[in-house]
């Protein structure tokens, strides 16, 4: 039988992985270019109010950067006599139930609410294309994801081995690998630029360029990012090639290679096959949706993420195992995910280092003494390109939030009703989409408001699906909750949010409109409200610890001052999340989706650009960036809390520590004879023992009682005495 002729997976391939990171090129701009059918040579900027949240590559060639103002970008375009198009993000206007694209002159933050829904919907279609090739997908944000193509590549290798198509498989050096030119290889030598051949001419056979199996000199890393301080072998974007073609032109991916390179080894062979699949995926995204994307291919997630940004736009880069050491030696260590923010600053301050290779001189024991056992081990490995993070399907977010920073502030009840109407319309649309896709329904509704006198959240049970329900229902209930506050304390209101939490239900299809019928019943749809839950959050302490101990700070430092979810439990059964849930299912998701540490100019939307479902929920930058260049808060999708940007580092570091602790517990023996991490030190939200017992072996953490204040996890609980 045909199946019997398929050779088994070679032993040399067992235990190594082929990971691909795919990142859309200037995603928000591409969505708007496709919608408006704009020429891709045209400079396009996506604006929110008077600030730019996305800039395409022709605009970057003019010197325009994300977060610039519209007037500054217009001036740069005029100086170079270049045409430019500004497109405002979709907004909800008063009385609208769907986000629409309004003329920027008619959009005002005083009357409109930003919506990122068009980008969430485009993202969903892109990941549906990914899913045609593999089920091993981790959505990192709205415009990027990780794909584990190990099984796909190994299966194809086995088939070609059985067919005798792989040369040198029996030789000690390993199989001969011939690389196609749609991939750029990170090398210890300058790489030739790949230029698509002229289809009207008869090209000679492409020359074969051998690739040295081992590095002989520091690698030259390719980069086109304006803000990148990596050494570059490629000229700027406008000197490499023309911008990506018009959305309706043929595929931009060249089929005929212009030059070829060869190497040897089973690991290289696996990456070569993964690169071919990555090219197929990128081509499929273009053919079906007309988006270009870049990709990085390597043996782990961290390296593939770094590679995807080296040769943007519309290219893919491969980092082979034999060049990882040289690659990491010259890499600025702040380019590594999790080391670009506060943690990276602490490492730089403690050790006076700039490049990843500078950290190699510090022994593992020294790093663990400074940063704790787990963080020290992670840091020791990551700067050498070693990472064992798996590609995991992220948990779907259990909450949706719509928030608005109010300028001018709300000063009367009619203005409250106006803004609750816009927030409710946005949540209604998202609930429709989620019910159709996932068959889920929320358990709780929460409103939060911030005034000079209040920083408060109130929650209420969400109406069941069988009840008549419209966006008006949310408005009525929100107003009822608001009226229970002291009238003198709710004005002026500077920030308002509405959230639904506890989304649950079996996967299925259906039309939510059968539940969301017309709300002509008025007050009868609202019913009698049970007593709401009120949560008043304590204010942040006036001062924070300095130095490294800022990571090991008190609970109020590591958690936000205000929680939009009140004291509502996130689990479906009403209990607090367990340490395993926090450590494995969600902390990994937050780690992948956070944008603060990333320096890739191609990220759209800054820290507010998330995924919509899985990863960090895409909270509208309207709530995060009330004015250009000013980011006040962000919403953590893991815990649904609104976090001041000044506290974001501690908050994301806490989630990162949860993941590290969970991975540590899964290993029975640590390298170097280190003891296992303490299972009692997990970052559960449940009631904890006293500080002296938090890190004890085998310690149990009882669940907190209903209504009990939610405690805070800090990094100190994870790294024990090693952080002293």
The number of helical segments is 20
Largest sheet: 6 strands, mixed
CATH class of the largest domain: Alpha Beta
Overall average pLDDT? 73
Rg measurement, Å: 26 Å
Shape call: globular
Number of extended strands: 21
**How helical, in percent, are the residues?**
25-40%
| Multimerization status | single chain
Named CATH architecture of the largest domain: 2-Layer Sandwich
- The unreliable regions are 190-250, 253-258, 506-601, 605-632, 668-702, 708-724
Strand order of the largest sheet: 7-8-1-13-14-10
Spatial separation of the terminal alpha carbons: 64 Å
CATH superfamily caption of the largest domain: Reverse transcriptase/Diguanylate cyclase domain
Could you say how many structural domains there are in total? 5
**Structural class designation:** alpha+beta
Short synopsis of the structure:
The chain is α+β, with helices and mostly antiparallel strands. 29% of the residues lie in helices and 15% in strands. GO terms for molecular function: damaged DNA binding; DNA-directed DNA polymerase activity; zinc ion binding.
What would you say this structure looks like, in words?
The chain is α+β, with helices and mostly antiparallel strands. The strands form six sheets. The protein has a six-stranded mixed sheet with strand order 7-8-1-13-14-10. Helix content is about 30%, strand content about 15%. Strand 16 and strand 17 form a beta hairpin. Helix 5 crosses helix 7. The C terminus is likely disordered. The protein has five domains: about 230 residues, Alpha-Beta Plaits, CATH 3.30.70; about 80 residues, MutS, DNA mismatch repair protein, domain I, CATH 3.40.1170.60; about 50 residues, DNA polymerase, domain 1; about 140 residues, DNA polymerase, Y-family, little finger domain (Dna Ligase, domain 1, 2-Layer Sandwich), CATH 3.30.1490; about 180 residues, no CATH class. The chain is globular, with a radius of gyration of 26 Å.
């Amino acid at each position: 039988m045909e199946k019997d002729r398929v050779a088994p997976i070679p032993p040399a391939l067992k235990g190594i992985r082929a990971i691909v990171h795919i990142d859309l090129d200037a995603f928000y701009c591409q969505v708007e270019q496709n919608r408006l059918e704009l020429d891709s040579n045209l400079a396009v900027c996506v604006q929110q109010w008077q600030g730019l949240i996305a800039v395409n590559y022709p605009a970057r060639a003019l010197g325009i950067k994300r977060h610039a103002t519209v007037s500054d970008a217009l001036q740069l375009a005029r100086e170079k006599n270049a045409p430019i198009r500004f497109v405002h993000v979709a907004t909800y206007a008063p009385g609208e139930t769907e986000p629409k694209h309004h003329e920027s002159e008619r959009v005002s933050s005083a009357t409109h609410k930003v919506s990122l829904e068009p980008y969430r919907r485009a993202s969903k279609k892109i990941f549906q294309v990914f899913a045609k090739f593999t089920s091993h997908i981790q959505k990192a944000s709205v415009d990027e994801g990780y794909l584990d193509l190990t099984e796909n590549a190994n299966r194809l290798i086995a088939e070609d081995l059985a067919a005798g198509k792989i040369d040198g498989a029996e030789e000690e050096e390993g199989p001969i690998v011939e690389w196609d030119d749609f991939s750029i290889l990170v090398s210890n030598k300058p790489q030739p630029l790949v230029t698509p051949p002229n289809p009207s001419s008869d090209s000679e056979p492409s020359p074969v360029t051998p690739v040295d199996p081992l590095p002989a000199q520091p690698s030259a890393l390719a980069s086109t990012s304006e803000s990148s301080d990596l050494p570059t072998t490629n000229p700027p974007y406008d000197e490499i090639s023309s911008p990506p073609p018009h959305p309706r032109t043929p595929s931009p991916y060249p089929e005929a290679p212009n030059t070829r390179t060869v190497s040897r080894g089973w690991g290289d062979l696996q990456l070569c096959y993964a690169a071919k699949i990555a090219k197929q995926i990128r081509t499929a995204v273009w053919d079906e949706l007309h988006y270009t994307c870049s990709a990085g291919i390597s043996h782990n997630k961290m390296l593939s993420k770094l590679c995807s940004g080296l040769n943007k736009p519309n290219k893919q880069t491969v980092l082979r195992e034999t060049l990882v050491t040289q690659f990491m030696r010259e890499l600025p260590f702040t380019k590594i995910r999790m080391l670009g923010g506060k943690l990276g600053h602490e490492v730089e301050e403690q050790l006076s280092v700039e490049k990843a290779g500078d950290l190699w001189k510090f022994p593992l024991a020294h790093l663990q003494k400074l940063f704790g056992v787990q963080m020290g081990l992670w840091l020791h490995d990551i700067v050498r390109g070693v990472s064992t993070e798996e590609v995991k399907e992220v948990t779907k977010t259990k909450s949706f939030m719509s928030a608005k920073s109010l300028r001018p502030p709300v000063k009367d009840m009619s203005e409250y009703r106006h803004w609750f109407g816009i927030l409710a319309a946005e949540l209604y649309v998202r609930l429709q989409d989620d019910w159709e896709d996932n068959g889920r329904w929320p358990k709780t509704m929460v409103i939060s408001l911030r005034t000079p006198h209040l920083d408060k959240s109130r929650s209420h049970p969400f109406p069941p699906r069988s009840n008549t329900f419209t966006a008006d229902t949310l408005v009525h209930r929100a107003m009822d909750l608001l009226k229970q506050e002291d009238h003198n304390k709710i004005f002026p209101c500077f920030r308002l949010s509405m959230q639904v939490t506890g989304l649950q239900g079996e996967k299925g299809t259906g039309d939510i409109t059968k539940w969301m019928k017309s709300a002509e019943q008025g007050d009868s749809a609202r019913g009698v409200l049970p007593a709401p839950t009120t949560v008043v959050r304590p204010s942040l302490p006036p001062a924070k610890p300095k130095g490294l101990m800022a990571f090991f700070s008190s609970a109020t430092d590591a958690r936000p001052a205000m929680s939009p979810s009140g004291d509502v439990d996130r689990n479906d059964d009403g209990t607090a999340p367990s340490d395993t849930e926090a450590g494995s299912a969600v902390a990994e998701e937050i780690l992948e989706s956070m944008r603060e540490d990333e320096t890739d100019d191609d990220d759209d939307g800054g820290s507010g650009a998330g995924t919509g479902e899985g990863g960090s929920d895409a909270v509208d930058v309207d709530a995060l960036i009330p004015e250009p260049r000013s980011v006040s808060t962000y919403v953590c999708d893991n815990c649904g809390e609104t976090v001041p940007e000044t506290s974001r580092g501690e908050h994301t570091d806490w989630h990162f520590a949860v993941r590290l602790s969970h991975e540590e517990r899964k290993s029975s023996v640590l390298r170097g004879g280190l003891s296992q991490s303490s299972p009692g030190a997990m970052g559960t939200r449940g009631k904890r023992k006293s500080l002296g017992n938090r890190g004890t072996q085998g310690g149990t953490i009882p669940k907190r009682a209903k209504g009990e204040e939610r405690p805070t996890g800090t990094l100190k609980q994870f790294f024990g005495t090693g952080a002293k």
